[in-house]
Write a structure and sequence with these properties.
The protein is α+β, with helices and mostly antiparallel strands. The chain has 3 domains: 2-88, Rossmann fold, CATH 3.40.50.20; 116-179, 2-Layer Sandwich (Dna Ligase, domain 1), CATH 3.30.1490.20; 182-290, 2-Layer Sandwich (D-amino Acid Aminotransferase, Chain A, domain 1), CATH 3.30.470. It has 9 helices and 15 strands. The protein has helices at residues 13-24, 70-82, 91-98, 100-109, 126-133, 157-169, 227-240, 268-274, 278-290, and strands at 2-6, 28-32, 37-40, 47-50, 53-54, 60-63, 117-118, 138-142, 151-154, 174-178, 186-193, 196-204, 219-222, 244-252, 255-262. It has a 5-stranded antiparallel sheet, with helices on both faces. Strand 3 (37-40) and strand 4 (47-50) form a beta hairpin. Helix 1 crosses helix 9 (278-290) and helix 2 (70-82) packs antiparallel against helix 3. Residues 104-287 form the ATP-grasp domain. GO terms for molecular function: ATP binding; metal ion binding; ribosomal S6-glutamic acid ligase activity. Keywords: ATP-binding, Ligase, Magnesium, Manganese, Metal-binding, Nucleotide-binding, Protein biosynthesis, Ribonucleoprotein, Ribosomal protein. Its cofactor is Mg(2+); Mn(2+).
């Protein structure tokens, strides 16, 4: 099988691990900087060109699209789709997951547990918005933020008003969410491949830090999920159309609630924490899919 990994940097851990796993399984792999691709958009012979070479002899792609390059990256993925090339995460699914508001609305419509979340436009409606959430403490979150950037905990009404006014004064779109105190600064990353959770870890925020992101100094430990947490993660990824996803979950008093579904989840933290070869699992899934034999695994997930 001939694989193209769409990534800006071949030396990144996730990219290099996917390449290593694919080559170990006997496949031919090319790392393609998707921002250096250009496209011939025709109905008769759509194709992608990279460094002057037509990428027409590709069986599957693995999109590793950065959040800041979603528009162009998904255009490249969509072009490969027009060419009949398999991708575990299609362009529309990636776009859905990158829009935090849209993805939460889609998940809510399908009954997925979420933190109580509010969205508004005018600063004249801040009091009403906070009332919808149930009042401070609340988490104010930029729609375009990643890795915990643009996420603020406001623990008083005055602090919440100040943060919301500041963001809206900069014309930044935000979500306001309940603060799930019982999670105690921890969340769960469930890594979904196909129709099952293949690895999971608990991320604990650093002392004094409510954000659990590893980039913010959080610590990760291996964890066993409950059946409800497993099914929530698989359903959330499936509803958005993702076959490879990192689903971030909080343990709340009313059960698991989904914070976010990531379409380009990093492999470094999950592999090192769980000692599971997630990259190999992804490649094996793509093999089955390209062969037209992908079915829901009958082997129960250990997570």
């Amino acid at each position: 099988m001939k694989l193209a990994i769409l990534s800006r940097d071949a030396s990144l851990y996730s990219t290099s691990r996917l390449r290593e796993a694919a080559e170990h399984r006997g496949h031919e792999v090319k790392v393609v900087d998707y921002l250096r691709c250009y496209m011939n958009i025709t109905s008769s012979r759509p194709h992608v060109v990279y460094h002057g070479e037509d990428l027409t002899d590709v069986d599957a792609i693995i999109p590793r699209i950065g959040a800041s390059n979603t528009f162009y990256g998904t255009a490249v993925v969509r072009q490969f789709e027009m060419m009949g090339v398999f991708t575990p995460n299609r362009s529309q699914a990636i776009s859905r997951s990158r829009d935090k508001l849209r993805s939460m609305q889609i998940l809510a419509a399908k009954g997925i547990g979420l933190p109580v979340t509010g969205f508004g436009h005018s600063i004249k409606d801040i009091e009403g918005l906070l009332e919808v959430i149930g009042g401070p403490p609340v988490v104010v979150k930029m729609l375009e933020g990643t890795q915990g950037i643009g996420v603020v905990l406001a623990d008083t009404p005055a602090a919440a008003r100040s943060v919301i006014e500041a963001f809206r004064g900069l014309d930044v779109n935000i979500l306001v969410q309940e603060f799930v105190k019982e999670a105690e600064g921890a969340d769960i990353r469930a890594f979904v491949v196909g129709n099952r959770v293949v690895a999971a870890m608990k991320r604990q925020g650093a002392p004094g830090e409510f954000r659990s992101n590893l980039h913010r100094g959080g610590k990760a430990t291996k964890i066993k999920l409950t059946p409800k947490e497993r099914s929530t993660a698989v359903r959330a990824a499936g509803i958005l159309g993702l076959k490879v996803a990192g689903v971030d979950i909080l343990r709340s008093r009313r059960g698991p609630v989904v914070l976010e579904v990531n379409s380009s989840p990093g492999l470094e933290g999950i592999e090192r924490t769980t000692e599971i070869d997630v990259a190999d699992t992804i490649i094996a899934y793509i093999e089955r899919s390209v062969a037209g034999a992908d079915k829901k695994s009958e082997t129960p997930s250990p997570y």
